[in-house]
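It is worth pausing here to work through a concrete case rather than discussing structure prediction in the abstract. The textbook approach is simple: state the sequence, then state the predicted structure, then interpret. We follow exactly that order.
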Amino acid sequence: MTQAKPTAVSALDLQAFFRCLATLFVSSVPINLALNLLGEQFGDRPMGAVSQHLARTVESGGALSQAMTCFPTVFSELQCGLVRVGETSGRLDKVLERLAGDVERHHRRILQLRQALIYPAFLFAACLAMLVLGPPYLLEPHFRLIRESGAQPPPLTMAVMGVSDLLRGPLFYGGIALLVAGGALLRRKLRGRELRKAVGRRILGLPVVGRLVRAVAITRFLETAALLLEAGVPMHSALRLAARSTGNPAVEDRLQLAAQAMEEGRTLSQALASTGVLPPEVLAVVRAGEESGELSQSLVWTAGMCELQLESLLDVVAASVEPAVMMIMGLMAGILMLATLVPLTQVLQNL
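Step two, the predicted structure:
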């Protein structure tokens, strides 16, 4: 089946699609009718066209999972695979409900990340704007007065005046153009897996951001693995699919080794321990789940535990970044005030 035209669908629409489809299907509404109803509900939005295309494919005898693969920018490989498992096992209703919950959790986590970082990002942008716009535009009249007075300014003032001249010159704007071009080139290069893997490895090594990225990847991996096991996917296949959901190629490659270790005869806890990705407390719960025969439930529990740790880490990051940026802004304001007031005081004394 050929791929459909790339479609940009919002996270909220995708969340509503899975939740409504699961509700309608559990209520004994035929899948093709449910998809047609969703197409009418979304109307002219991109998700409406996607729903109608899925409905036409199902009505012509195709499988829902097969139709979903036509929209790789809308439905992930994991989602298509889970729906395929649900169709073959006769548990499509359970799979759709699990998928709806998974998409909702993922969207909620993204919102938590944005809410935790939006205020520090705003402060950082204000700090950067003060640094770029302050010396060349707001303080330039003061610097002109100092130059015309003929007095020898202090070294701090000379340094700030030099930065001001640089920010007003063509070299600065040329540098911005090069930065934008370099960013666009890097974004294109990041489509390559090896470069993304190298960048992901570097990010994991950062003090605070690395912990945050690792926590997100581990939580996503555990949630997806639990979802796959409950859907009836074999263990080694579930590990491989769950590893792809982490969003970090460096973490994914290390977790893929766990599936290989299981094929060699190791238990899940031993295989995961060999990767060095999961913390000891998570491995202990997984080991307990193996011994009790409740492995999928233990993965669900550990995913919830990791999600709570992630929320706590987000709170710590937000609480730490905010005063740090405020301190930098205060330091910059103090430097600019000293660079202008001290020489102006000398000029007034010489009058």
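Step three, interpretation. The two ends are 85 Å apart (CA to CA). The longest helix spans residues 295-350.
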